[in-house]
Write a structure and sequence with these properties.
The complex is a heterodimer of chains A (848) and B (258). Chain A has 848 residues and is of the alpha+beta class. Chain A has 28 helices and 21 strands. In chain A, α8 (256-289) crosses α17, α12 (335-359) packs antiparallel against α14 and α24 (723-747) crosses α26. Chain B is α/β, with parallel strands linked by helices. Chain B is 33% helix and 22% strand. Chain B has 9 helices and 10 strands. Chain B has helices at residues 41-48, 71-78, 96-101, 110-114, 120-132, 148-161, 178-194, 206-212, 235-242; strands at 2-10, 16-25, 30-34, 56-61, 64-65, 81-84, 166-169, 198-202, 215-220, 223-228. Classes of the chains: A alpha+beta (848), B alpha/beta (258). Chain A binds chain B through residues 685, 750, 752-753, 755-763, 765-766, 769-771, 774-775, 778, and chain B through 12, 49, 51, 74-83, 85, 87-94, 98, 102-107, 110, 113-114, 116, 155, 158, 161-162, 168.
């Protein structure tokens, strides 16, 4: 045995992989080293000491592997892979706060939502209302002033007492109501808010008797008046008791909810339409700049090409919903915000697709047409456009598809369209109304999928078309189409509330956020805050002066040591650091601070400062304590450190990656068994098999139409806000997606090898392992990687509606105007999306 | 000896693939099965090892009724019958070695085989089989990286792993060019002559039949229409099997010997 072979295990004990490297297995050694280092870092990051046990096992496996390879034996990679996967998943479960028990404990809050899904608010009978009301005073005082407002005459309500305190019981009698019909008891507080009167948590309902009377004991709702609106001592407030009857009449009509949903479907379609049309217009010129064959000839052209491509890629990797949050800062919430977000993302996506279509133009026909003596326009019309148009149409349609999907959920952040209805109604616990909106989204998306699939097929299979006969076909059809298009466009323009002045007015905010994004908050230097103070007694003699200003070093001097509010005061600072921003504040006698002047102040080159002002009225001494004037400033100490925003961003980026990983895993595990139900070759040709197959495929398709953002809204109310809700929502979305892809993979299994292995006398398990799994596993893995890739994109935005991860923090930062921190998060998202795109594309190329 | 007695196969959709086919194959024969596409050749071969369940009739091999065998017995029988396919039927993503080793699945411990464990003598056997067909250097390649002729040799090696007494070859050369066709059939001929393995092989080209077969049966619309020596298969008899419009085509340019 050579020396390095004997030493190898020892070296591997010192540093994982070293023993493999000295034996000439560089990639194995480096891979092991990188794995142990990365996993070790992650374990430290999550502070999970127990996970050092499997990590140590991985380390020892490296030693054993070095021994094995010194003996020229191979020890495989299954064991270390399992160990590494165990560590990653354990970390993931910890970091994403997976608490399966919440699925059960949160069930009561999700149950009404699930129940509502089968009972959307579609149609109802119009109702005639029959309402009696009575003023009622809370609480009782003596003497009791006359109540404000009148009682109704017919029907009539009476109580045994004219007044009561909150929580006391009152007997309510009614007469003149509609016989035999239920009466709902409502309570209106002095502010005008209505609530149902409850009994043991259930809304109170009492039937009127045959003569239209009822009698019931009710409790004055203890929470009917907010604490800050309650009457003072010796005062009373007039409430109102209402008894309502509703009698349906006439014929069924669409509910208000349904009408609203239909209106918002229109808004959704308008947003998607106008964003797609405008994006097409803007993307075309951009795509010329991003086409290599047009820009490649000249160094300047190449530079433009690379710059445009990079910008397109960056814009594209930031999700539409994120752009909606960014644009909300610029133009405010609303349809226009959503439209701009859709537009910008579409320009980037279409610009890239169009430029690829341009790059794909065959120069041969262009050359041939030019050789016939055609001019530039003729060449474009006869050789370039016919090649470009099919891809142009297909890509535009594809984008319209995506935009319509997106615009159903963009309202979740930009307060518009169907998404806004969902957010509103879930907050108001109007689950049946919310269910109506969700079902509307599912139907719109499913219908759209179908229509656009059919259209795409026609475009791809499209023939050049024969000669157009007749004036009608030649001019009529295009004219009608143009008019329709323009009408739709103008309507959409109005619905989308396109507000160009808002773009200009919001420009300062827009510039501020842009600047912050270009200079994200990455590094910080620790600072120490110093301050000097001078006492100011107001009025003179109200309190003893406490501190005397120091004679040396930084100090603040006042032109008065005491005075009355409004007296002119000159504040001078001396010995302060030169050319430094300082803050000059009143320290009020109650201990709070008040800035003396806005945008103030900066010391001069000698470290002096002079500020003229008047004594503030709030500086009046209280209980013998005087106020002070304070100058404070920050000084940098020490070197650069990662900023808090950067640390948080890195932390949450890891959480986001793990969320995506866990969701993909969970989704795959559930999707694999389901996928067999959707595979026609597995389900066979029998009637039961066919029925199961069609049912499974239909369920997959409908389920797929539920956007992950909507699932996240629901999951957040199921298991609470946080990454677990995000993981759950993504997994629920992944199940039908993956099941459909897996079903297709199963259907494409080559029966040949199955037959061949069966013919050798193998049993069915062996056939599975040797002929079926080798065909399925690589494709499944490729689809899982692809889904993980998509999940990473989605998990960056799922936090906007409570799904945790980096999106949640991004929205918080934007809400707090911490744009530089939001910029840091954005760049991290861009980096993650690019990284995963690259890894997954390479891995998939190897698998397939 | 293989006896096929009154074999009939009717598919669920009503297609009659085989109608009352009976013949016998003696030990050590090289039997060619000819006939148009859709005449039932593939069905016949697959009924012998019951990849397709015959509707009626019996297949008796060395005194054992294959058609009456239980699943367990059937697997025992199948492991002695090698099969070679037109489309090679290799698992494209698996290595050549794994594909060849899968020929031993009927012999090895089924549980160990699920972990891809095979005894070392099987590994040696696999190397020997691949050496025999001349592609031992490709042992660790992925199957889909091989050319068609090489893939068919892997298919033969897989069948050899079974230590077969009978090889069923379903149009083994229909997907290959003429030169490769001869080299593949020469391997089968060698196995037939040197190892005494019975070969039942469906073929399309008359010249290949004349060159390699010791006996021929012809199928037309699922019925046996010819049985005899290759030299008895004249142009006239050929037209009876293939129909009047058929023209004899030669393979490999001038290699026709009939």
């Amino acid at each position: 045995m050579r020396a390095e072979k004997r030493l190898a295990p020892l070296l591997s004990l010192l540093l994982p992989g070293l023993g493999q490297i000295v034996q000439g297995q560089q990639s194995r050694g480096l891979g092991l080293l990188a794995t142990v280092a990365v996993l070790g870092g992650l374990v430290l990051w999550q502070k999970a000491p127990l996970l050092f046990v499997p990590l140590a096992a991985l380390w020892l496996w490296g030693v054993w592997d070095a021994i094995q390879s010194a003996r020229n034996r191979s020890s495989g990679t299954v064991a270390p892979f399992l160990l590494a996967a165990f560590i990653v998943y354990a970390l993931g479960i910890r970091a994403t706060e997976i608490h399966p028990e919440r699925l059960v404990s949160g069930w009561p809050s999700i149950r009404p939502i699930v129940q509502a899904l089968v009972r959307p608010e579609l149609m109802e009978y119009p109702k005639e209302s029959h309402i009696g009301h009575l003023p009622f005073q809370v609480p009782c005082i003596t003497p009791l002033p006359p109540p404000q407002g009148q009682a109704s005459e017919q029907p009539r309500l009476t109580t045994d007492v004219p007044c009561a305190a909150l929580g006391e019981t009152v007997t309510l009698e009614g007469e003149g109501f509609l016989p035999g019909l239920d009466v709902e008891i409502w309570w209106q507080n002095p502010i005008g808010d209505y609530q149902r009167v409850l009994e043991e948590g259930v809304p109170l309902v009492v039937p009127a008797d045959d003569e239209g009377r009822f009698r019931i004991t009710i409790r004055v709702p203890p929470t009917s008046v907010p604490l800050d609106r309650r009457p003072g001592p010796g005062e009373t407030q007039t409430h109102r008791i209402e008894a309502r009857q509703y009698r349906p009449y006439g014929s069924l009509q669409p509910t208000e909810t349904l009408r609203l949903v239909i209106e918002k479907i229109g808004e959704t379609i308008a947003l998607a339409f106008i964003a797609t049309v405008l994006a097409t217009i803007f993307a075309l010129p951009v795509s010329f700049l991003a086409a290599r064959n047009l820009m490649g000839g000249h160094p300047v052209g190449r530079a433009v090409y690379y710059i445009v491509r990079t910008i397109l890629n960056i814009v594209r990797s930031i999700e539409t919903l994120m752009w909606a949050i960014i644009f909300a800062v610029w133009v405010g919430l609303g349809p226009f915000d959503g439209m701009l977000a859709l537009l910008l993302h579409s320009i980037a996506a279409l610009g890239k697709l169009y430029s690829e279509a341009i790059e794909g133009i065959d120069p041969g026909p262009v050359e041939a047409v030019r050789a016939t003596g055609a001019n530039w326009t003729q060449t474009v019309v006869y050789a370039v456009l016919p090649q470009f148009m099919p891809s142009f149409l297909a890509f535009t349609l594809y984008r319209w598809d995506i935009n319509l999907r997106m615009s159903t959920v963009i309202g979740l952040v930009s307060n518009t369209g169907l998404g806004f209805l969902i957010i509103q109604w879930i907050r108001l616990s109007r689950y049946n109304a919310m269910a109506t909106a969700i079902i509307a989204i599912v139907l719109v998306v499913a219908l759209l999928d179908y229509v656009s699939a059919a259209l795409r097929e026609r475009i791809i299979a499209g023939s050049p078309g024969g000669p157009k006969r007749g004036i009608l076909r030649r001019y009529g059809v295009p004219a009608v189409a143009t008019v329709l298009f323009l009408t739709l466009f103008i309507w959409s323009w109005g619905v989308a509330e396109v507000d160009l002045p808002a773009l200009v007015e919001g420009a300062p905010a827009g510039l501020r956020i842009t600047r912050a994004f270009l200079f994200p908050d990455l590094l910080t230097r620790p600072t120490v805050e110093s301050r000097v103070t001078a006492p100011l007694v107001v009025p003179c003699g109200a309190a003893p002066a406490l501190t005397a200003p120091p004679a040396e070093g930084p100090r603040v001097a006042l032109s008065l040591s005491c005075g009355a509010p409004g007296d002119p005061l000159v504040i001078t600072g001396e010995g302060l650091p030169a050319n430094t921003d300082v803050s000059v504040r009143w320290r009020l006698p109650d201990g709070s601070f008040l800035r003396i002047k806005k945008n103030c102040c900066r010391t001069d080159g000698a470290g002096n400062l002079r500020l003229e002002t008047q004594v503030h009225p709030l500086m009046e001494a209280k209980e013998g304590t005087a106020g002070e004037v304070e100058i404070s400033w920050k000084q940098v100490i020490g070197g650069y450190q990662p900023s808090e925003a950067l640390v948080t961003t890195v932390n949450l980026s890891l959480v986001t990656l793990l969320m995506a990983l866990l969701a993909t895993t969970l989704g795959s595990i559930i999707a694999i068994p389901l996928s067999f139900l959707g595979a026609s070759n597995v389900m066979g040709r029998g009637p039961v098999g066919r029925a199961v197959y069609f049912a499974a495929r239909t369920v997959f398709n409908l389920w797929r139409s539920v956007e992950p953002m909507i699932l996240a809204v629901i999951c957040a109310s199921w298991v609470g806000l946080g990454p677990f809700a995000g993981v759950l929502a993504l997994a629920l979305n992944n199940i039908p997606n993956l099941a459909k892809l897996f079903s297709e993979a199963i259907e494409e299994i080559d029966p040949g090898p199955v037959e061949a292995v069966t013919a050798t006398g193998a049993n069915s398990l062996q056939v599975l392992v040797y002929a079926i799994l080798p065909q399925l596993v690589p494709r499944f893995l490729a689809y899982i990687l692809y889904q993980w890739d998509i999940n990473i994109r989605m998990s960056t935005v799922i936090g906007f509606v409570g799904g945790g991860g980096i999106g949640q923090q991004f929205r918080v930062w934007v809400g707090l105007n911490q744009y530089a921190a939001a910029g840091t998060a954005t760049w991290a998202i861009v980096a993650m999306v690019w990284g995963m795109d690259y890894v997954s594309a390479r891995a998939r190329a190897r698998l397939i | 000896m293989l006896e096929v007695q009154h074999l009939t196969k009717i598919f669920p959709n009503g297609t009659v693939a085989l109608r009352d086919v009976s013949f016998t194959v003696a030990e050590g024969e090289f039997l060619a099965v000819i006939g148009l596409s859709g005449s039932g050749k593939s069905t016949l071969l697959r009924c012998i090892n019951r990849l397709i369940e015959p509707t009626s009739g019996r297949v008796i091999w060395n005194g054992v009724d294959i058609t009456a065998a239980s699943p367990r017995e059937l697997r025992r029988i199948r492991r002695h019958i090698g099969m070679i396919f037109q489309q090679f039927n290799l698992v494209r993503r698996s290595s050549v070695l794994t594909n060849v080793l899968s020929g031993r699945l009927g012999y090895v411990n089924p549980w160990m085989s699920l972990l891809h464990y095979f005894p070392s003598e099987d590994h040696q056997r696999a190397v020997a089989a691949l050496e025999r067909v001349g592609i031992a250097d490709k042992i660790h390649s992925r199957a889909d990286q091989l050319s068609g002729g090489q893939q068919q040799r892997v298919g033969i090696a897989r069948a050899l792993m079974q230590e077969p007494q009978l090889i069923l070859a379903d149009e083994p050369v229909a997907s290959l060019d003429p030169v490769l066709a001869h080299s593949i059939l020469q391997y089968l001929e060698q196995l037939n002559r040197e190892a005494g393995i019975t070969v039942i092989c469906s073929l399309h080209f008359l010249d290949l039949v004349h060159r390699y077969a010791t006996r021929v049966i012809g199928l037309k619309d699922g019925m046996l229409v010819f049985e005899g020596q290759p030299k008895e298969l004249t142009r006239e008899r050929f037209k009876e099997v293939y129909g009047e419009e058929a023209e004899m085509v030669t393979v490999g340019g001038g290699m026709e010997r009939g």
